[in-house]
Amino acid sequence: MVDASLSRPPVRGALVETAARVRLRRTLELTGRVLSDPTTVIGLVIIVLMLAMALLAPVITTPNVPDPYQMPRDWGAVRKPPLTEGHLLGTTNNGGDVLYGVIWGARTSLYLSLLVVSITVVVGTIIGSIAGFLGGRFDNILMRIVDVFLSIPELIFALAIAAVLGPSFANIVLALAVTFWVKYARIMRAQIMRVKQNDYVDAARVIGDSKLRIYFKDILPNSITPVMVQATTDMGHVVLVGATLAFIGLSEAGIAEWGVLVSEGQAGISSGRWWASTFPGLMVFLWALAFNLVGDGLRDALDPRTEGR
Amino acid sequence: MLTNLEESVAVVRAPDVIASVRDLKIHFSGKRGMVHAVDGISFDIRDGETLGLVGETGCGKSVTARSFLRLVQTPPGVYAGGSITFRPRRVCDDCGGVGCRECDGTGRVAAHCPACGGKGCRTCSGTGEETVDLLSIPDAQMRALRGNRIAMIFQDPGKALNPGLTVRDQIAEVFLQHRTAEILAAAGVSPDDVLLRRQASQKSRAFEKMLLAVPPLRSGRNRIDAALDTMVADALAQTQIPNPRKVMERYPHELSGGMRQRVMIAQALACNPDLLIADEPTTALDVTVQARILELIRELQQRHKTAVLYISHDLSLVRRVCDRVMVMYAGRIAETATSPQLFRRPTHPYTRGLLGALPGRGAHRGRLAAIDGTVPELVNPPAACRFVGRCPDEVAACSRTDPPMVEIEPEHAAACFVHAPPVKAPASRPVRTP
Known about the structure:
Oligomer: heterodimer
Structural class of chain A: mainly alpha
Helix content of chain B: 25-40%
Strand content of chain B: 15-25%
Shape of chain A: globular
Strand order of the largest sheet of chain B: 8-9-10-3-11-12-14-13
Number of strands of chain A: 0
Number of helices of chain A: 13
Helix content of chain A: over 70%
């Protein structure tokens, strides 16, 4: 049999770059740039581990019935130190297993941060876009509203909202969403004001594109990057503030949430029972740190100005 | 390289006016009052000619050009008066845009007046041709003209291309906006296929795109993509880009400045426009590349017989490229002439100053000539010649009245009391600049 490759013309495909290949190459380049920073890699590893823990929670632990997000109570084993049989990280004053809380707390945190960040990114982007793209009166009114929100410290504002609405996990989500969208609106508005000045926006008008098309084709893709970076950092920040609110008692008691756990264990710290607060506190720290590292890494990789080459 | 260009400049074409500007006034509201950036200028652009618009920074030349496409931001800009009448053409029926004897090789013929269907009526002042006022037509009509009948090339091609889209996508955009029927025909798709027609006019929503990715519908979408690929590659090939199929998959930052400007030109000329506005198209380029880009614009313009409004502050360049030249100063036209006339017999003191400031080829190194003084502020200007104070030949009349445009010889007019004295009293017979 004759080798089929002999009858083919010389390979030209290797020279012709298809759009798909160019896109793939760009993605690989960007990935390479992100991964070239060791701190970013550390952050990514922590995030992957956290996500694995959150997703596999029902597999690693036996879910509490009926509500797995409630801490299981083992009244027979109260205030046990770490490495106790059946309670690897010890138990709390109320017989809650710290390990269970840490693992299911990751799930709660993922739930909280995804919910808050997606709501705030969408709301902030829309409002910032309207203000920046339409400008004029819209811009004035919307930005004055943003100013009002910004003039109140974020934690105190969230605290006030949660306090008025009563302690519950849903209210923490709401309180955080109401405080966090402002940043995105500001970033988006500033970005759009800047991108709008570019000649390619005028060039798009010159070829007859409609305003909406210009927004989606030329403006949005070229201004969304800082929002994405901020969103990554906020994935950690939301959990930090959320845990703070839960710690002060604005979440319902007894749920598997890191802030709640820290608060549950704090009474015992002075008596030497350090474990009930330390492990969940450490988790909050790691979570916030990891997303911050990755956020910074993304910013460095995406922003040509900080490119250290 | 440019000598053959210079020879062709002297050819004067049939005065078939494609766009006429009448008493155009564009003001900008500033902190200290209205800035009269363009203050009552009138001129015509003839079919197929290259009209140079020369002047220093801030004289209103860019604003004038941008107003053709209604690109001036309002606010702070205000269209304070005047009109820009434009005669859009349509694709020639006999050849379908390829160019035949019927349309003189341009592929374009005059569009019939919508009011009378070509018989001649009051709307079209008896010509039977469609005329529109670019400053007053509704936005939708303006959008249909942009990129289709009037196109524009920007100064810096590095900034005028979207960094996030491939060259192919950016040029395809023009076809998707204005050539849906042609795309469908090239793809062999029936124009009654709603889903594909929307795809070929960039109207598809996300769910329609998903539908089109499903195998039975996919072949139609792929045929449209292939047809677009061919159209884009053809447009690029016109600008002498080697290997267009390869270049069109690149992003702008992967191309050189000259290549980017070729892409811009391909995009601008994709729909065979009647009028091309070139806003200093070579300023951002290397000198060696400049010449080749100029030659390219010239060649494509002659092939398609496109009228070009060429904005520049480089007189030596304008001399090579333009049939006629208009010198602007502080929002007014100072002088207008054919290009040989202007350089043989500059009349307005400002034009003389500009030409005098050109470093001569044989001259020894030394002080470069300059025009003394600075451009006047254009906030609420008085009724006087704008050049007062900088003019070497000033007389008393100059600071009392505005000099009208006066014809010195055919095709050549200037606004100056001293060098182009009005025939009788001032402002007796202001000649409309051709």
